[in-house]
Automatic annotation (TrEMBL):
Signal peptide: none annotated. GO terms for molecular function: metal ion binding. This is Protein yippee-like. Residues 57-154 form the Yippee domain. It comes from Microcebus murinus.
């Protein structure tokens, strides 16, 4: 198909334009290709990386309901986050970690990495990467999630 056909196709009635563009006897292409149509971006479906078992009590993200932790992984309810009360968990799911940085917290110097919900990207709390005081070593590898970012879900009657 020649460039002239591409440029004039929009001036022809739809049937003629389609016929001239799709004809098997069209002249071979001469010149550059016409610009490609704009691509349609399909939004990512809201699926979680991990679903926790339905028979256990669990905590979910308050903003998007993504599963975060089983109640069985709760270590302590007596922690303080930057925006209020927080819980310490042994393990969590559907969270991403930022880079580790040293912060002076209420219990001393720690290397921590902010954690966020993988689904809605809300910052939930942090992960303890390293504790510099021997009395705080039990926190290493554990997660803090602030109460205002999570809800109780499934089986809390």
């Amino acid at each position: 198909m020649c460039v002239v056909q591409v440029l004039t196709a929009h001036l022809l009635p739809p049937r003629q334009a389609l016929g001239s563009l799709c004809s098997p006897w069209a002249a071979p292409r001469v010149g550059p290709l016409p610009p490609a149509p704009a691509m349609v971006r399909i939004s990512k479906p809201k699926t979680f990386q991990a679903y926790l078992d339905d028979c256990h009590r669990r905590y979910s993200c308050a903003h998007c309901r993504a599963h975060l932790a089983n109640h069985d992984d709760l270590i302590s309810k007596s922690f303080q986050g930057s925006q209020g009360r927080a819980y310490l968990f042994n393990s969590v799911v559907n969270v991403g970690c930022g880079p580790a940085e040293e912060r002076v917290l209420l219990t001393g110097l720690h290397a921590v990495a902010d954690i966020h919900c993988e689904n809605c990207k809300t910052t939930l709390g942090w992960k303890y990467e390293q504790a510099f005081e021997s009395s705080q070593k039990y926190k290493e590898g554990k997660y803090i999630i602030e109460l205002n970012h999570m809800i109780k879900d499934n089986g809390w009657d």
